[in-house]
Amino acid sequence: SARLLTYAQRAENHHNPAAKALLETIGRKKSNLCVSVDVTKQADFLRIIDVVGPYICLVKTHVDVIEDFEFSMIDRLKELSAKHDFLIFEDRKFADIGNTVALQYSSGVYKISSWSHITNAHPIPGPGIITGLSSIGTPLGRGLILLAEMSSKGTLASGAYTSQAVQMARAHRDFVIGFIAMRRMDGVGAEGLDSTDLANEDFLILTPGVGLDAKGDSMGQQYRTPREVVLESGCDVIIVGRGIYGKGNDADIQAQAERYRKEGWAAYEERISV
Ligand code: BMP
To answer: Where is substrate bound in this sequence (predicted)?
Structure first.
């Protein structure tokens, strides 16, 4: 299973350009850390990314929370992505019918497909959401992440819903590169499927709800440590927001980014060494 392979080995075997690039970046930078930069001003957004850039494989954005948004911010983001060698993941959580999400992905103020290597969607509408997003993203070499589970208390994304999300992804492996999930999805919803085929599948598990200093927040977020997430649950990328950018001045933010990178990488090295 992919759980025991190195990121570099997985990059060699991957067919999707965004997944391949992400796995290569992780290996090259020795970082499975994705920073989620959920701030509301362009200047803060760009400054934080410039500080954490050397320590991350991926930046996760919620571009619609930026109050003074101008499209030139995207040009600056792309420059930082080249300067520091990371990919971009707009956490858009699409959740509509195929025709609508294709428009939301390609058009409007943000034109997400033009700059975000990876985006995500809720499986709730059924497979048409993948067809719609793929019609825009596949020609551009993008990758899609499905939300199979969530980190928040009381999430409805569990049990049969999670299994069906994985089944939807298996039917669209060219474009769906993995999941937002709290654990590896190997074998989930796989009853009766060919075992060699399943052994060859490589979905990336990107996991939010990661924090070293808090157990959660007052709105249902729940945190686990990088070690719990990567070593015990077999996830591939840790997503950290307030645990990094919420820590004060640039020196503190840099120190936290370095701390999470180290913890995430140590947990991975221990995982593949067994
Ligand atoms: P923080 O580390 O500050 O709690 O931020 C977590 C980030 O991950 C947020 O941007 C949130 O939107 C996102 N997220 C999450 O917390 N749980 C999920 O299940 C899915 C998410 O995208």
So the answer is: 38, 60, 151, 221, 241-242
